Inverse folding.
């Protein structure tokens, strides 16, 4: 999950550089077409069934994930990046809300506190300086809620499906949704720099998505979502290194709280797995 967070952060950096040359539909089309091609090759080489287990749920995950991605890209164009990320990273909270309601997952008070600690760190990182229009802020929050629901569905799907088939459905669904808009007025890379950015973004997002989907096999949906908040720290780091952004005390304190929340979740989960099962009535 941490590897996925690093890769997502690198993708964010490229998307920030690509926004002046490409539209939302262009970025989405390149992402989903490359992901569909890679996963198709993997499925054929592994001789895995295209049907998967739970086709309806696989399609639902694809629709939710695609909408979350598109809506976030729209939000990034209408409000500041920091504002959009604060709202978008509400998705672990939405995952924590949806998972017990839809899939009967259990969440404890200690785990809720860890989530709140991580969120407080994100709040300090961005100083809660909400900017842009109310519509833009609502759009970013909608992206977070869609992502939270998608994360809950992914965790359920990982019980009987592999990472590749889940991501394949996601990419095919996204390609079907973005393809017609891209085809109406396609924007092709015009120079070597744009070509490298498109290729790099396609590779990064595909690797990140596969890593994230694989990780949900070993952790709860909302727990994985909180671990993914490390993407905020890695994105800030890339901003310092590549965009020469300032290193502030808020970045250090906020990052520490995010790490503390994620570490607390890991410790709680490890103790739960190590604890012996409760005695049954037959044990006397």
């Amino acid at each position: 999950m941490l590897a996925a967070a690093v890769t997502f952060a690198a993708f964010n950096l490229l998307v920030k550089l690509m926004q002046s040359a490409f539209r939302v539909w262009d970025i989405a089309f390149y992402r989903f077409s490359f992901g569909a091609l890679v996963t198709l090759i993997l499925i054929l080489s592994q001789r895995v069934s295209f049907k998967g287990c739970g086709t309806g749920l696989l399609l639902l995950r694809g629709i939710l994930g695609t909408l979350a991605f598109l809506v976030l890209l729209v939000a990034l164009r209408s409000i500041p990046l920091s504002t959009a990320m604060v709202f978008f990273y509400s998705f672990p909270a939405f995952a924590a809300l949806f998972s017990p309601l839809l899939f009967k997952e259990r969440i404890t008070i200690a785990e809720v506190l860890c989530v709140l600690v991580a969120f407080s760190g994100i709040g300090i990182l961005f100083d809660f300086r909400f900017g842009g229009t109310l519509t833009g802020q609502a759009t970013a929050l909608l992206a977070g809620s869609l992502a939270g629901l998608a994360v809950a569905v992914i965790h359920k799907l990982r019980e009987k499906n592999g990472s590749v088939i889940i991501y394949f459905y996601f990419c095919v669904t996204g390609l079907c949704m973005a393809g017609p808009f891209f085809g109406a007025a396609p924007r092709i890379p015009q120079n070597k720099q744009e070509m490298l950015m498109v290729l790099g973004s396609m590779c990064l997002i595909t690797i990140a998505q596969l890593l994230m989907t694989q990780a949900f096999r070993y952790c709860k949906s909302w727990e994985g979502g909180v671990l993914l908040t490390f993407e905020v720290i890695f994105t800030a780091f890339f901003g310092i290194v590549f965009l020469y952004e300032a290193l502030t005390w808020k970045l250090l304190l906020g990052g520490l709280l995010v790490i503390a929340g994620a570490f607390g979740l890991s410790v709680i989960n490890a103790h739960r797995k190590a604890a012996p099962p409760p005695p049954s009535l037959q044990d006397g």
Observations:
- Residues 2-107+129-220 form one domain.
- The radius of gyration is 19 Å.
- The chain has a mean pLDDT of 81.
- Residues 249-274 form the longest helix (26 residues).
